[in-house]
Every structure is written in structure tokens, then in C-alpha cells.
């Protein structure tokens, strides 16, 4: 017989601890959000395996450990306003919404965004705002009228740090962004300081590409 999802979720949290995740807010968020809601029905039995899984449109729901690493490195605060690029399944949006004040999330594929919006609304989140469009241009929406964010999380692989995302990061703010070619990238933590950008490497990773529809936005 299959373990109950609740028990599988506890097991995943323990696995994240063994892998070096120590942030109580991050572990708590993983203990709360049911990943089985965000995967395709045919993959529900694999929802708590620590790996990425296919979602619609040839995209993936990120690996739990990879999300946990990014969330931990971002040093999220309950007062933070966060910009997420690549809504995808909405799973990471839910984890963020458990920890911070507001999440503004951008997805270029309408089908995925609408699907995530439905699941997240049903789950009761009222601190997540959605935009369908190219994340290279950042938020760009009248409501909520944020021009700058405390944290930015890019969950697809970029070729460079998008200039509009740097503009929309507060001084003192942090951005997690995988940079590199298809297949393998390096995760970078970019901190915006008074003097410019402080860029730190945080290990290897593998994300689907951040698609650039309009090259002038790069
Ligand atoms: N955190 C998500 C990751 C989804 S995969 C999850 O765990 O489900 C990355 C997503 O980024 C895909 O849905 C893809 O369509 C989206 N994406 C790719 N390029 C983009 C762009 N330029 N702007 C916005 N979203 C983009």
C-alpha cells in the first residue's frame, strides 16, 4: 500500500534536512504545501520524490531540493515582496506565499498560468498576483503597483542577468538566478548593493530555458 501523502511530505522534509536545508521557514513551507496538487494526475504517486517532473507544455515542476536551496539562500522575510519568474505549476509560488508577504509571479505560457491560478486560488492564497507575459521585462503591471522587489527568484535558465530584473531589485535585495546553456547551469545569488552587484556562485543546477521572445528586453 502507498504511504499517505501527509507521511510522504514529512519524509521529503526530512530528506531536505539531510541535504543541508536548515531554515525553519523553508522547511515549514515544504511541510505545508501539498505537491500532489501541482503535478499532473499521472505523476501524483511520484509527487514526493525529490526530482523534477513533467508538467504541461513541455515544462517541469522544479526539484524540491533545488527550490529549497534557492529559498534558503534568498533569506526570505515575512515582510518581503517577491517577484517570481516562471510560475509553471505554481508549486514554488505556494511555498513563497507561505513565507513572505506578497508574491508577484510571471509566466509566458497562458495555459500554465491559468492552471496555476486556479489551483492556488482553490488552495486559498490571496497574496499571489499573476502576470502572463515575458519575465524578461519583470513585473510591469498596474496592480499591485510594485516597481521594486526585495527578492527575485528566476526559475528558468537565463543566458545572462536580465537588465530589467536588476532594475526591479531593491538596493539590499537578492536575486536567485540559474545562468548557463540548456542542460547545465550555475545558480547565482545576485545582491544589489550601493556600489553595484555582488554576484556569488551557489552550485550547479539544471532548469528549462528562460525563453526570450523579445531580444530588446535582454
Ligand atoms: N517554479 C516552477 C518552475 C516551472 S519551469 C515550478 O516549480 O513549477 C519554468 C517556467 O518558466 C516554465 O513554465 C516556462 O514556461 C516559464 N518561462 C520560460 N521563459 C519565460 C519567460 N521569459 N517569462 C516568463 N516565464 C517563462
UniProtKB/TrEMBL annotation:
Keywords: Cytoplasm, Methyltransferase, S-adenosyl-L-methionine, Transferase. One of its GO terms (molecular function) is protein-L-isoaspartate (D-aspartate) O-methyltransferase activity. The active site is at residue 62. GO terms for biological process: methylation; protein repair. InterPro entries: PCMT, Rhodanese-like_dom, SAM-dependent_MTases_sf. It catalyses: [protein]-L-isoaspartate + S-adenosyl-L-methionine = [protein]-L-isoaspartate alpha-methyl ester + S-adenosyl-L-homocysteine. It is found in: Cytoplasm. It holds the Pfam family PCMT. Its EC number is 2.1.1.77. One of its GO terms (cellular component) is cytoplasm. Residues 113-148 form the Rhodanese domain. Catalyzes the methyl esterification of L-isoaspartyl residues in peptides and proteins that result from spontaneous decomposition of normal L-aspartyl and L-asparaginyl residues. It plays a role in the repair and/or degradation of damaged proteins. Belongs to the methyltransferase superfamily. L-isoaspartyl/D-aspartyl protein methyltransferase family. This is Protein-L-isoaspartate O-methyltransferase. It comes from Cloacimonas acidaminovorans (strain Evry).
Amino acid at each position: 500500500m502507498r504511504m499517505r501523502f501527509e507521511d510522504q511530505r514529512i519524509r521529503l522534509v526530512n530528506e531536505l534536512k539531510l541535504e543541508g536545508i536548515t531554515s525553519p521557514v523553508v522547511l515549514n513551507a515544504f511541510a505545508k504545501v501539498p505537491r500532489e496538487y501541482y503535478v499532473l494526475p499521472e505523476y501524483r504517486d511520484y509527487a514526493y520524490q525529490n526530482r523534477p517532473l513533467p508538467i504541461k507544455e513541455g515544462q517541469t515542476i522544479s526539484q524540491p531540493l533545488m527550490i529549497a536551496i534557492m529559498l534558503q539562500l534568498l533569506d526570505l522575510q515575512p515582510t518581503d515582496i517577491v517577484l517570481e519568474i516562471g510560475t509553471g505549476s505554481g508549486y514554488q509560488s505556494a511555498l513563497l506565499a507561505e513565507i513572505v508577504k506578497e508574491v508577484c509571479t510571471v509566466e509566458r505560457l497562458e495555459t500554465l498560468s491559468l492552471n496555476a491560478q486556479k489551483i492556488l486560488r482553490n488552495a486559498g492564497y490571496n497574496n499571489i498576483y499573476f502576470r502572463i507575459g515575458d519575465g524578461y521585462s519583470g513585473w510591469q503591471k498596474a496592480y499591485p503597483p510594485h516597481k521594486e522587489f526585495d527578492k527575485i527568484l528566476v526559475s528558468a535558465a537565463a543566458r545572462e542577468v536580465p537588465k530589467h530584473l536588476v532594475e526591479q531589485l531593491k538596493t539590499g535585495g537578492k536575486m536567485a538566478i540559474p545562468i548557463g546553456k540548456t542542460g547545465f547551469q550555475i545558480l547565482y545569488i545576485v545582491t544589489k548593493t550601493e556600489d553595484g552587484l555582488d554576484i556569488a556562485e551557489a552550485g550547479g543546477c539544471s532548469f528549462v530555458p528562460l525563453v526570450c521572445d523579445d531580444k530588446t528586453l535582454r
